[in-house]
Design a protein that fits this description.
22% helix, cell projection, LlgE_F_G-like_D1, cilium, 2 domains, 20 strands, Flg_bb/hook_C_dom, five-stranded antiparallel beta sheet, Flagellar hook protein FlgE
Length: 273
């Protein structure tokens, strides 16, 4: 009976965690480049009331008797699936279609292991002629170096970006080309969220490999970089609301388990009376 109380408590606690994940997904339904998450459960330890016994030809076998002790969160997995592309008409808005992440750095002296990765492709040209995101982080090329497109950004007459991420810039110094790089990982679901639509490499994700979109025999062989587009969140509201309902009902069922267990304890106490 006491076991059922604690099982109900564990169910309520972990359903609350699942609700937190769902709430964060719904809150970010319109966040550019956001990847939704999913909370997975697993059962806790089981207490054995009777051990299994094999049949010996004289007596039959006996199956084990075990009582579960509740539930816990097995993991919170990121869904790195493709989000829908939205047209913006702005050249420096970039959307990745396929695998890969933009590498960005907080400052020009950052080492590779201090780099961040993102699918948010809203970039700007700052006063120094560098491509930066909304937080001022530098966009990097396929070698991991920051992209500096012009010493005199005020003289730029044209700037175009191809599907492979090649930037062609014409300014007072002439025409020059630069290359946007895309990073891939052995396990991108192992990336660590760092806030601000940023991810960092981890031991689970493995090291980053930088390539050019469309390069054969690489992780980005079928990827393209689309100028004048942004990748929207991949949150599916239909799934999220269905999960919200089942999570709420699961929470209520576990609360009912606690209430019923309490009533049974009350009946036990009333026997003495």
């Amino acid at each position: 009976m006491i076991r059922s109380l604690y099982s109900g408590v564990s169910g309520m606690k972990n359903h609350q965690i699942r609700m937190d994940v769902i709430g964060n997904n719904i809150a970010n339904v319109n966040t550019v480049g956001f990847k939704s998450a999913r909370c997975n459960f697993q059962d806790l330890l089981n207490q054995s009331l009777r051990s299994p016994v094999g049949g010996d030809g004289t007596t039959g076998g006996v199956n084990p008797s075990q009582v579960g002790l509740g539930v816990t969160v097995a993991g919170i997995a990121n869904n790195m699936g493709q989000g829908a592309l939205q047209s913006t008409g702005r050249t420096l808005d970039l959307a990745i279609e396929g695998n890969g992440y933009f590498m960005i750095k907080k400052d020009s002296g950052d080492a590779d292991d201090e780099a961040f990765f993102t699918r948010e492709g809203s970039f700007y040209l700052d006063n120094n002629g560098d491509l930066v995101n909304s937080n001022g982080y530098y966009l990097c090329d396929d070698a991991g170096a920051i992209i500096h497109v012009s010493d005199q950004p005020e003289t730029i007459s044209s700037l175009t970006i191809s599907n492979t991420g090649e930037i062609v810039v014409t300014d007072s110094a002439g025409t020059n080309t630069y290359q946007i790089g895309l990073g891939t990982f052995p396990n991108d679901t192992g990336l660590t969220k760092a806030g601000q639509n940023l991810y960092q490499a981890s031991a689970a994700s493995g090291p980053v490999t930088m390539n050019i979109a469309g390069t054969a025999d690489t992780g980005v062989a079928n990827s393209t970089i689309n100028s004048c587009y942004l990748e929207m969140s991949n949150v599916d509201l239909t799934d999220e609301f269905a999960n919200l309902i089942t999570t709420q009902r699961g929470y209520q069922a576990n609360a009912r388990t606690i209430t019923t267990s309490d009533q049974m304890l009350q009946e036990l106490l009333n026997i003495k009376q």
